[in-house]
Amino acid sequence: MNYVLPLIPALPLVAFFITLFLGKWWLKDSAHWIPILAMAGSFVLSVAAFLAIRGEEHAMVVELWRWIPVGDFQVPIAFQLDQLSSVMLLVVTGVGTLIFIYSKGYMHGDPGYYRFFAYLSLFAFSMLMLVLGANYLLLYLGWEAVGLCSYYLIGFYYHKPSAASAGKKAFLTNRVGDFGFGLGVMLIFVTFGSLDYLHVFEAVEHGGTSEGILLAIGLLLFMGAMGKSAQFPLHVWLPDAMEGPTPVSALIHAATMVTAGVYMVARSSVIFASAPTAMLVVGAVGAFTAIFAASIGLVQNDIKRVMAYSTVSQLGYMFMALGIGAWIPAIFHLVTHAFFKALLFLGSGSVIHSLGGEQDMRKMGGLARKIPFTYWTLIAGAFALAGVFPFAGFWSKDEILGMNFKGGGYIIWAVGLIAAFITAFYTFRLIFMTFWGESRMDPEVEKHVHESPWSMVVPLMVLGVLSVGAGALLGIPPEGGLFAKFLEPVFEPANQILGVHHEAFAAIDVILMIVSLAVALSGVALAYVFYVRRPDDLPQKAGAISQPLYKAVLNKWYIDEIYDATIIRLTIDGSRWLWRVVDAGVIDGAVNGVARLWDIAGRIVSPFQTGRVQNYAVVMFVGLFVIVTAVIVF
Amino acid sequence: MVIPIEWYLVLSAFLFAIGAAGVLMRRNLFIVLFSIELMMNAVNINLVGFSRLHENLIGQNFVLFTMTVAAAEAAIGLAIVTALYRNRRTLMVDMFDVMKG
Amino acid sequence: MEFGFAEQIGFRALSLLTFLPSLGALIMVLFMRGRPSAYKATALVASLATFALSVYMLTAFDSSTAAFQFQENFVWIENFGINYHMGVDGISMLMLLLTSFLSVIAIIGSWNYVKDRELAFFASLLILETGMIGVFTSMDLFLFYVFWEVQLIPMYFIIGIWGGARRIYAATKFFLYTFTGSVLMLVATLAVVWWYGKESGALTFDILTLQNAGFPSNIQFWGFLAFFVAFAIKVPMFPVHTWLPDAHVEAPTAGSVILAGVLLKMGVYGMIRFCIGFFPEATVNAVPYIMVLSVIAIVYGAAVSLVQPDMKKLVAYSSVSHMGFVTAGLFTFNQQGIEGSVLQMVNHGILTGALFQMVGFFYERTHTREIKDYGGMARPLPIAAAFFSLFVLGSLGLPGLNGFVGEFLILLGVFQYMKVFAVIASLGIILGAGYLLWMYQRTMFGELTNEKWLSLKDLSAREVLTLVPLAAMSVVIGVWPGPFLEMLHAPSLEIIAKVEPFMAQQHSLVQMASTFLGGF
To answer: Cα dist. C252→C22, C115, C165, C236 in Å?
Structure first.
């Protein structure tokens, strides 16, 4: 493992450098080969890592070198392999490889082709650093680095002002979260004298740390997670991030990077378990975000934006799970979500690709027969997202809801259930508007509709299979499946602190499953009524009845506008005031004032300086005369 | 007959006063220069007079020095005046007030 | 301990290092009038040789001790106890490397920049280098003062002769501001020397002797104040920073690079040597105030940067913010803070030097620095945009690049000192990302604002050559800062040991300040 582990992130890094430096002049249209091979290599190595760590009690740590050694602050570049990082590795490299392959087709012919693959490789490297790092500072490094790649990739079409500002918005919003994360890391160091996971967690388990400090750490870390995983109120960047190319949305803004927050909280499960209030906050924010984002997704017309809000909402589910200590279901949902959401994004990308760039669902329709592969894979993804038995999303979502119910979180359970209903509705709204019914396409566009190339369809099919089967394969029986068994050692300490006992599968689980299935199906059915049976009048009527609400939702609850009017306005105006008034006015005013004072003094005495030698001489003579007289007389 | 020291002093005082008045009041740079020479010679007369009074040759020595320096000074002074005239086309002293504050 | 080659050349290495650039300048002025290629080459060779020598000294440098190395000590003016005494410790060694490194970059960077009186320009740069190196190597207060003034003059000319439209105003402001501080420093120097002479019976300007003098409280207070103001102006700390934006905006590129890269560091360096070295007690008592000023500088500088319409002014104000980090870290008096602070000086020198260099390159092409005149420049200038993004990212503290290491260590130090300050300083980091990315977006991204820009040429090989070392250093320090920090361990422990005895009484002040600020 000592050599394998560092190689996993190193391969994409090497691919990044090669592609970046040679891409423009040499690799050009074949720039995809090196990144794809590197990614596939990382995947193989990740599988090896998975096999090595299966059933192990303890984590493996490989230290490369001391990164920042200052006094008692010693941070190594070190990798930690345990079941949690292994799962993340597989997701990142697995889904990553598929998306890399997909990108070959999707980005074909783009002038920035090599640049795109270079960024993707850098992203893969950063994400792998994030999940492999053995201490909080490396997590922070990966965290910021993925944010950077996200910035570049969102702004990939940099000549579009909207893309450029979306990238900036993403980075800045994340920075707000990282403000907390950074402080949290410092507090961890000050409290425990180390940033290594193993050391910190051991110290927490040992007890003796005041709950207030643990709560502060938990909340500060969660602040970072809120930024990266787009939880309310820091969710605003993710929908805008859809300005990036679709493979980016799939890889970064659905499958991997945005789940980093979930990974972080799960990784710190011991800390959160010791600070119940922090968990409550995590759960509450998650639940609120789940329903909040779902409500916005309900009315969006841009196919990618629907997906974006759905991602925010699904991330909310994961935090909801973490909030009650359902670590494994959260990670399980993370994995299944990575499959089906990547699928949905890639599928939408395929739709957009075949329509030559059209993203507005109002200008689609009737595509099912024209692009059948895309259609059928998307259907699989949609069922998974809606949580319909036996698709992947059903198992993970049901586990989250079930554990909430059984844990006594009835309110959160109810919220989750409503959100699930909305999710099913908007997912199938998307399917129906895009693929069913009459075509609403521009005739010009319609002529050119074509199925996407194989490099795009094959990844879709693989993800489709995973979306169908992965849930059942890994998640049966609920809370005791292969997945749970595998991950158990990682979360054992946290569960011990929480006093969670494993319960056998019981009748109550079956009832809950049926309830959530019923909710999901009714959502699908309602969407069917709205957009297939009566697409011409029902949506309009519903919108008209709830006019103010509809408008608020359509405008994303005016969150962006509120931020613009308050925080951003205040910062800019305040800064301008500081510059114009304080800096130029007060400080420089004082400085120049002093200078002017001397200037005035000079003006007063300068007339005595006539410049005529004779005047001076007269004064000298008179002065001499006066002095001599005075000396003689007195 | 020994000329009494007072005669020297009175003559030198007159010469010095004329020179000083010239320096202070005349506008032509040449005249100003000449007036300075005049003042210098007044001082020389004083030196010679006291030299005789004290029967000490140091004073006369000094006069020789002064005259040499005065010659050099006159040469430089005239050179400057010539240069000034070339530049400004005037020798009126009150026109040279570049250093006016 | 065996005496290797280092020891043998050691006793003259520092003098050689100091005067090598001036020697180059002399040769240029005497023999190479009117032959641009010859004198430029000489300038380059002189600066390269200086850099090579400083690197060579690094290999002979023993980082395990805080003692001064490569010492040379000659009597200069015996009656006043003035010696020609030079030596370096880890901190000054790093500063030397930074100085000689940036000087090379500045000289290559301004190869075709000035059109007028080129010889004098390069000669000034070299004399400036002598002054700067002298400041970092002097171990005699008088010698230090001489070099301190020596570097002021070429800089004054560089701004005043080769600067922009308001260069006279800027140069005068720069000179007067700094000189006010210098005069205070001179008075304090004389007071300190006089007091010590009265006590011990012999005048001395020797820094090491004076550091162990143990001045009484009143001398400490006034001495500290005078030295501190002198150095605070140089750093510059809030609120005596307003010369900086003007000087930077008007200065030619090389001037800005050196000014931001090295000259500002002399202020902090002076604080380490003199404020802390001579007056530890007064320093400890002043820490809360310094902290408040530093934190204000961090947030204030960042906020003002946010709204600057001029790229160069933006970078200049960002320097105020970054130097706020440096002073904040230094006066935490814990190892992380101090080492972070000194490392951040190096980082800031590299990154801000690079940013100024890049703004200069853009200016040479477009003849404007207004952000609104740019836009979409990534299209005609992809290589420039790539480098620019690297430096912007380093500057906003992206992990993996050098800015992060320093900044994080400083914040960690400040956090240990008082949490509230760390929280506020962290806000500066958010703002930092804000102004830098916003600038980057408005200049490099978006649609081309001006069709003319399409015909611009991307960076030439020479320009890339100036940026590659900066970029490389940025990455190296980012991923492997160990060797650099290693040099700082001993000096930073020395500083801590120096102030330790007075810390007990400082705590009451901290508590006062923290109750005042509402505590955390």
So the answer is: 21, 12, 11, 20
List, as one string, the DSSP characters of C228-291.
HHHHHHHTTPTTS-THHHHHHHHS-HHHHHHIIIIIHHHHHHHIIIIIIHH-HHHHHHHHHHHH
Q: Over 60: is that where the pLDDT of A209 sits?
A: yes
In angstroms, rounded to a whole number, what is the distance separating the alpha carbons of residues A416 and A329?
A: 14
Within an 8 Å CB–CB cutoff, is residue B25 touching chain A?
A: yes
The pLDDT value given to residue A349: 85
Prediction pTM value: 0.87
Given CB atoms, is A137 within the 8 Å cutoff of chain C?
yes
C254 is written with which tokens? 């090389």
Q: Do chains C and B touch (3 or more CB pairs under 8 A)?
A: no
Lowest average pLDDT, out of A314-318, C55-59, C515-519, goes to C515-519
Contact C80, C437 (CB under 8 A): no
Residue A129: both structure tokens together: 């650093």
Is A373 within 8 Å of A436 (Cβ atoms)? no
Which of A606, A618, A621 is the closest to B101 by Cβ?
Answer: A606
Q: Which two tokens stand for residue B20?
A: 């000083």
Q: What is the pLDDT of residues C402-413, one digit of tens each?
A: 999 999 999 999
The C-alpha atoms of residue A252 and residue A241 are separated, in whole angstroms, by 10
The answer to whether the bond into C239 is cis (omega within 30° of 0) is: yes
Which of A608, A611, A617 lies nearest to residue B97, judging by beta carbons? A611
Query: Is C444 part of the contact surface with chain A (CB cutoff 8 Å)?
Result: yes
Query: What distance in Å separates residue C512's CA from the closest CA in chain A?
Result: 22
User: What's the CA gap between A251 and A127, in Å, rounded?
Assistant: 11
Contact state of A572 with C307 under an 8 Å Cβ cutoff: yes
A436-462 exposure pattern, b = at least 16 Cβ within 10 A, e = fewer: bbeeebeeebeeebebbeebbbebbbb
Phi, psi (5° rounding) for residue A365?
A: 105, 140
Dihedral sign for Cα atoms in the order A325, A331, A333, A337:
positive
Q: Which residues pair with C313 in a beta bridge?
A: none
Question: Least CB-CB distance to C336: which of A73, A159, A176?
Answer: A73
* DSSP, residue by residue, A435-469: HSSS--S-HHHHHT--PPPHHHHHHHHHHHHHHHH
Partners of C303 on chain A (C-beta within 8 Å) are 571, 574-575, 578-579
How many helices and strands (H and E) does chain B possess?
3, 0
What's the complex ipTM?
0.88
- CB contacts of B90 in chain A (<8 Å) are none
Check CB contact of A612 with chain B, cutoff 8 Å.
yes
Interface contact flag, C378 A137, Cβ < 8 Å: no
DSSP state of C73: E
Angstrom CA distances, A308 to A126, A244, A249, A302, A370, stand at 22, 12, 8, 10, 25
Cα of C392 to nearest chain A Cα, Å: 12
